[in-house]
Each structure stands twice: as C-alpha cells, then as structure tokens.
Design brief:
About 50% of the residues lie in helices and about 5% in strands. The protein has about 200 residues and is mainly α. The chain folds into 2 domains: about 80 residues, EF-hand (Recoverin, domain 1, Orthogonal Bundle); about 90 residues, EF-hand (Recoverin, domain 1, Orthogonal Bundle). The two termini are about 30 Å apart. The structure holds calcium ion (2 copies). InterPro entries: Calcineurin_B_homologous, EF-hand-dom_pair, EF_Hand_1_Ca_BS, EF_hand_dom.
Length: about 200
C-alpha cells in the first residue's frame, strides 16, 4: 500500500454512506476531496483547526458551535463518516422523500432532525434544555456588541416566557419545536449540494 491509498474511498464505503446519509455517489466523492483537502494532518480525520479554515464557518457567528456539532462528545477528531453524518442534516429534503413511510429510520435531514441539530447548537451542556444563560450566549454571538446586556437579557426573558409552557424557565426540545412550528426549517436549514 502506497501513501495514496489513504486518499481513496472504497466503493463499499461509498455505498454505506449513501445509505446512511442520502447523498449521491458524486456528492460523496466531491465532499471527500473537500474533506481530504481540509485534512492537513493527512491522517483521515479533521480537527477543530481544520474546520476553522472553511471561510463560511470562519465568518459565521455561530461557526464555533457548528464546528462543535461535528465532534462526538469528548472527541477532538472527526472521520469522513462522521463528517458526512453531520452534513446530512443540511441536505435538502427531496420531493420524493417527503411521503416516504417505508424508511427504516428517520432520515438525518428530516425536519425533526434538523431542529434537533439547531437545538443542540444552543444546548451546550447537553442537558436537553436551553437555559436562559445558554440562550443569552447565542444571542450575544448573533447580535454582536451593539446591544446592551440589559436589552439582551430582556429579549432572552421574553423568548423563554413565550416558549416555556411547563414553567421550568428553560426551553425543552418539545417547546423549541412548538415555537418553530410555522417556520420553514426545511428551507432555512438546507444547503444546496451540487449533484
Ligand atoms: Ca442546557
Ligand atoms: Ca420549559
């Protein structure tokens, strides 16, 4: 095996990823070459620093949170399989997938899984609730410095008040879904991947 072997994706691996993520063969090979070009250590995994070289993430106020979502808890490397699994949340829902009841499990790009992904960007301590503090942190990242702590605090309070139906002063995933019921999440959380 030469050193180039590590840069090739096996055909059966492509098939497995296809099944798991719904990406097409050509999307997978294209994303694989993107993956390997980001992999500066050339060890088949990406670190947080590798992700920070993606310009779209570097300028996104939630970039660090999104990068974090690629990493399984307690790990600081992600392999191609894990990379694709996370990206799959951003895959648009195709027309022919909308009424598919035969799927063995819910696809990664379903509305619920997209929402769960967004929810986890807020829920830093992963206790399945968004606390006032966690909401404040995200608000601060998104609005920058042009708004006072007091104003941000009252936005956070109002948001929680509106969402919190069981009165525990935090937002559960169910409450989160209710708030976003009328929002076109499928559209907002989709990236057009070229075919
Ligand atoms: Ca939390
Ligand atoms: Ca609640």
């Amino acid at each position: 095996m030469g050193s180039r072997a590590s840069t090739l994706l096996r055909e059966e691996e492509i098939e497995e990823i296809k099944k798991e993520t719904g990406f097409s063969h050509s999307q997978i090979t294209r994303l694989y070459s993107r993956f390997t070009s980001l992999d500066k250590g050339e060890n088949g995994t990406l670190s947080r620093e590798d992700f920070q070289r993606i310009p779209e993430l570097a300028i996104n106020p939630l970039g660090d949170r999104i990068i974090n979502a690629f990493f399984p808890e307690g790990e600081d490397q992600v392999n191609f399989r894990g990379f694709m699994r996370t990206l799959a949340h951003f895959r648009p829902i195709e027309d022919n997938e909308k009424n598919k009841n035969a799927a063995p499990s819910e696809p990664l790009n379903s509305r619920t899984n997209k929402l769960l992904f967004a929810f986890r960007l807020y829920d830093l301590d992963r206790d399945d609730k968004i606390s006032r503090d966690e909401l404040l942190q995200v608000l601060r990242m998104m609005v920058g410095v042009n708004i006072s702590d007091e104003q941000l605090g009252s936005i956070a309070d109002r948001t929680i008040q509106e969402a919190d139906t069981n009165g525990d002063n935090s937002i559960s995933f169910n409450e989160f879904m209710k708030v976003l019921e009328k929002v076109d999440v499928e559209q907002k959380m989709s990236i057009r991947f070229l075919h």
